[in-house]
């Protein structure tokens, strides 16, 4: 009988250094510190949402502006252009290989509106603001932030492709699904400062908690941020690791998550052919289809 493959546990090996002292089900002092903070976060998500991982105010402001029927494009672009970093990030997405619509490079936001439309521009603004929120400041922790952002972008890209309808919502849900991991990791940074030198997360227990708790925390954060209610049910289903999701948006993100994890593990030769086949069979994707998707993800 084949042993079930835990793609999330494998994926965490990309985020944390491999330890020779795996403590199995026993949490070390660093992990106990972080786990206590996680439990506190569930009892008071408001603190986490406002102090650890605060949603940029411009996101809701721009969303309200874009939701207006008589939107003034000039005013909208003026709001975006007030933030040079945001403007640059949006233009980068417009010209990226994954989203570029023509050979002609987009060099201004005005040009972007003409070529991609307001709806796609809203998606890129949301994406850029989410990236800003996920940014990890201490240089020695940036690898985690970079890998999680790459994974989130891959999941968003694939979820939009997998969604039968409302691809833009699936895209943003893909970006949101891992905000709990970022919140937990930011709590971990503080724990690292208090830990003994060289102490690292090493137990299987900690990896399991990061997997199950982070998705539940994502759902709590999204609710506290007062984002559209349509995200709540899919995130709640994704947080239930015992059952496959039934909500169409949740299914799209669930499938995208597995494909992205497989792709990133394959890229660093940490996924056997047998494990890859077992994981992809869950989401009904064969080896040939996966290779096409894998090559697309490498270009993101």
From TrEMBL:
Residues 52-241 form the HDOD domain. It comes from the Bacteria. Signal peptide: none annotated. PANTHER family: HDOD DOMAIN-CONTAINING PROTEIN, PTHR33525. This is HDOD domain-containing protein. It comes from Shewanella electrodiphila.
